[in-house]
Structures are given as structure tokens and as C-alpha cells.
Amino acid sequence: MERANIIGLDKQHVWHPYTAMAQYIAETDPLVVVGAEGPYLLDADGRRYLDANSSWWVTTLGHRHPRLVRALTEQAASLAHVSLAGITHEPAARLGAELAAIAPGADRADVPAEQRLSRVFYSDNGSTAVEVAIKMAAQYWAQNGRPRRTRFITLTEAFHGETVGSTSVGGVKVFRDVFGPLLFDVVHVPSPAEEGGWARAFSEVEAALRAHPEEIAGVILEPVIQGAGGMLMYSPDFVRAVREATRAVDTFLIADEVFTGMGRTGARFAVDLAGVVPDLLCLAKALSGGLLPFAVTLASERVFSGFLGEKSRALYYGHSYCGNPLGAAVAREVLAVYRDEDVLGQVVRKAPRIQAAFERMAREIPGLTRPRAVGMVGAVDLGGGGYLANRGWRVYEAARRRGLYLRPLGDTVYIAPPLNIPDAALDVLLAGVEDSLREVAKD
Ligand SMILES: *Cc1c(COP(=O)(O)O)cnc(C)c1O
To answer: Are residues 139 and 247 in the same domain?
Structure first.
């Protein structure tokens, strides 16, 4: 089909995510992508774009990694879907074991058995992985002697997904405010990434835990990088301090690693940077490498055991695609590629170049603030405009003309490319970001 016809149908029928549709229909000339390979998107005019955000942080191994495509087609040839109700299958069983074996703390003798993340609950996406964790925590306390524990502590600028539950624990105003009356009550503390360090955020976490120990079901956080809130980065020391504070009152720490998990920060999980084992850990996005939606919530043996006994104590929760064999088979292959291609080692080698490039850009280009980088994420701000500001979009246009797909978060310009992006392509990406920022900075 011709490019123009595709856009015609799209503008008549497709309601795009996070998009002001009137402006989109009137003004936007969307990329029409017809294929993708490695770090590149290919459009209907035969142009190639470097995918600077791994298609919303998903394709950490690049697009259509041949081993993932093979794992998908081989699995599809025997079993594409079956429910997990009274049924199991090899991909779900083996993936569960493989995740438990690499989960934070799995290799540490000092972590007691009840703290090990040895149980896996399957769902479809990051929002549901978080929803599962919230429900597990709430139900655990409801039936294990602390029924008033229904409130969560969460961070300003947190993003945990789009269901009403995961939005409730979120802290980004534009995603939250309109739904205010539908959301459940949480305790918001400042972002640990705010200027001046994480001490203020932590003292509020501690104060809330101390003031309401009987009410707090858990603390939820995106360890080390608050992604959708604007690539806000903070020290792993905050995660460690929160872990100690939650242990002191015996409540849960929920690590939402939907963005940071699977090597984005250079460690397998961002909590590994802090040496912390959470009670619940959410993974999605990179877990299935961009082939299909797939998510897990890892739970400690203790959380799991809180649901045993009478039938009424079970977690009555599930999704139609729980443990989907295609997703599980692809996720197993993702883990295998990480092992065989030393993906974490690649991140550790490439990360300093991203950091140096963003620091230099902020030094040399007027108006840029807060250069920051962790692992395969680099970001810089164009000056305090927030999510709905538009200078970021001018950088997007400038980058697009240079063959980069560089979608901003408001006035935060960032890259989160595939972890295995070849060095030469990373150089092109960093140079393109710099040129685009210079162009917009000029006026
Ligand atoms: C993207 C994201 C989610 C939501 O994941 P979806 O798959 O989009 O539902 C949740 N938490 C974090 C940290 C995310 O980055």
C-alpha cells in the first residue's frame, strides 16, 4: 500500500497513544515504518532511521534479532497459546527456573530462602506486572495479620504504567491528574533525583514508614532511573536506604524494573547496583525483546507462602495470555542471547562514551542543563518546560532530518538505544543528537 494511503487510513481510524489527535491529524507527517533491523527503522520512502529509544525501551537486542525470530517461529510451530489453568508447558516452567536463577540475590549465600525471588507470575505488559505486585502486596497483608496495610509509598515523577492501579502509584501529573477521583490514595514523597540529592526523599520515606507502620503495604520505586518521568537518575544508595527502612518495619519493597531491568543500567537489574533484593520485582519491555508483549512479576518465597493454605487465600487474578508459550520461548532466548553475546559487558564498555558525550554537549551547547547518564541511557534538558513543552519536539524534527528517531520526554532529550548497538552506529547517533541540539539551540 502507498505511504499516503496508509496515512489516510491511519488518520481516519487510529487513535495514537500519548497524542493530541487534533494536532496530529492536522500537522503530523508520521514516519511510516515498513521494516526494522538491528538498531534501524526503515520507512516507506526507503530511508533508514536509528532507533534512539529502542522503540519505547523494548528492543534492547535490536529489531528482529535472528535468534529471537527463530525461537518465535519454532515455538509457533508446536504451541502458540494455551491457558495456564491446570496446564503447564515447558517454556513457562523453564523460564520460571531461569529467571529465579538470575534474580537479584540468587547468587548470594547471605540471602535467606524466604527472601529469594523464586516465584514468577506471568502477565502481558509492564502495567499489569505492576498491578500484580500491588495486589500481591495488599492481599498478603490482608490475610497475614496486617489488614490495615493498604497504602503505598511512591515517588514524585514515578511512572508505573497505565492501569488505574499502576496510575495510582504513579507520580507524573499529566498522566494522573485527570483521573484523580478514580485513583487510590498513596503517600507521595519527593523524587530522589531532585537537585541536592536523595536525602530529603529518604527522610520522607522514613517519616511515612515511622508515622504509619500499620498502614504501609510497601514502597514502590523505579530503581536508579525514573524513566517516563524524564530520565531522572539517582544514586543506588537511595534504594539501599529504602530497603533497610522497609525491613526495619517489615514491609515490602517493590522494584519496578520494567525499564531498568535486563541490563539497561549496565547491571542485569538496577537493584543489583545497590546490592538489594526487593520482595517483588516487575519486568516487561526488554524481557521479550520487542517480539511480543510479555511480563513477569517475581515474588519472594515469603510473599508466595502468604497465599498458601485455605483456597480463599489464593491470588484470584490472571490474564488470558498468562505465560503465553510464544512469549515465554522468546524470553528464554532473550536470556540466552544475553549470556552468549555478553550483553551486559557491552553496556559497561559503551556507557562511558554516552556519558562523556552528554557531558560535553551540556558544556558546549548553550541552554542545556542536567546532563546525566547511567548505562545505555543519556539525557539532557532543554530548560524546564515539562512534558507538554515543545522544544524537545523541535529537536525531534531536527533529528529526523538526520536519520534519527529521537522522541523526547517533554523538554528532556534522551537516548536509550539497543544495548548491542554497534560502536559505529552509536557514534553516528551521538553525533546526530549533538547536531540536532545545536540546531535548536541556535534560536
Ligand atoms: C513502561 C513502563 C511501565 C508500563 O509498561 P507497559 O508495558 O507500557 O504497560 C511500567 N513501569 C515502568 C518503569 C515503565 O517504564
So the answer is: yes
